[in-house]
């Protein structure tokens, strides 16, 4: 069984990087930017496990010296800091989730037909995995496929480490009940990452008969 507190225990702290044009200037007022939700989890997890370095997709964090270092240019460095989260900080809301999408839905995400609700996206998903019901074996196989899919899409998006972290979180609950698995999926989807962007993009194409769109959403 998964330890429910394991992945939630770090949420009282966040990591920030100094985003000034010259991050080492003593003359400028310090400006700090937050890491994404999953980057924050990766850094804090490394910190809690007393590791020297936290590995991200574009940077690595020298935890002893609190420095962010580019993975492609070691001379590109910035200070980082760990800060306790103010629960009343409304500025944490991720506004980009509410921006108008440049991709307009080709069809509704779901529709009613003969007293039932259908979804092109879910129907195609169940067909691809040959879904036969929620047996214990089927449940674990679906979680396994989802974890592999996360890593595959993460590589394509240049976010392999984010994807590996999400896959690890999903595999934690692999043998748990469906409600726990669904809650984990919802949590991962609502975190700031490549995942919700990719899913939103794909679901907006679901049901389209355009062959170029079908290749993407099917």
Structure description:
With 218 residues, the chain is α+β, with helices and mostly antiparallel strands. It has 2 domains: 13-85, 2-Layer Sandwich (Signal recognition particle alu RNA binding heterodimer, srp9/1); 101-217, no CATH class. Helix content is 39%, strand content 16%. It is built from 7 helices and 8 strands, in the order E-E-H-E-E-E-E-E-E-H-H-H-H-H-H. It has helices at residues 37-48, 120-128, 136-156, 160-172, 178-190, 194-203, 211-217, and strands at residues 13-18, 32-34, 53-55, 59-62, 67-70, 77-84, 111-113, 116-118. The strands form 2 sheets. It has a 6-stranded antiparallel beta sheet with strand order 2-1-6-5-4-3, covered by helices on one side. Strands 7-8 form a two-stranded antiparallel ribbon. Helix 3 runs antiparallel to helix 4 (160-172). It is elongated and about 70 Å long. The two termini are 33 Å apart.
Briefly, what is this?
With 218 residues, the protein is an alpha+beta fold. It has 7 helices and 8 strands.
């Amino acid at each position: 069984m998964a330890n429910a507190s394991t992945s939630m225990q770090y949420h009282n702290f966040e990591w920030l990087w100094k985003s000034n044009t010259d991050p080492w200037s003593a003359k400028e007022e310090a400006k700090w930017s937050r890491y994404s939700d999953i980057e924050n989890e990766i850094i804090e997890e490394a910190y809690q496990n007393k590791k020297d370095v936290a590995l991200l997709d574009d940077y690595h964090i020298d935890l002893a010296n609190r420095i962010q270092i580019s993975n492609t240019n070691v001379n590109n460095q910035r200070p980082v800091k760990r800060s306790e989260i103010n629960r009343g900080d409304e500025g944490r809301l991720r506004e980009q989730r509410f921006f108008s999408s440049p991709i307009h839905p080709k069809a509704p995400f779901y529709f009613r037909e003969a007293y039932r609700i259908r979804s092109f996206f879910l129907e195609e998903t169940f067909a691809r995995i040959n879904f036969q019901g929620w047996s214990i074996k089927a449940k674990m196989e679906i979680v396994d496929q989802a974890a592999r899919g996360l890593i595959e899409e993460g590589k394509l998006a240049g976010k392999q480490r984010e994807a590996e972290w999400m896959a690890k979180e999903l595999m934690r609950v692999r043998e748990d009940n469906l409600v726990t698995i669904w809650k984990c999926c919802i949590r991962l989807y609502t975190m700031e990452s490549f995942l919700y962007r990719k899913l939103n993009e794909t679901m907006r194409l679901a049901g389209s008969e355009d062959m170029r769109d079908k290749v993407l959403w099917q």
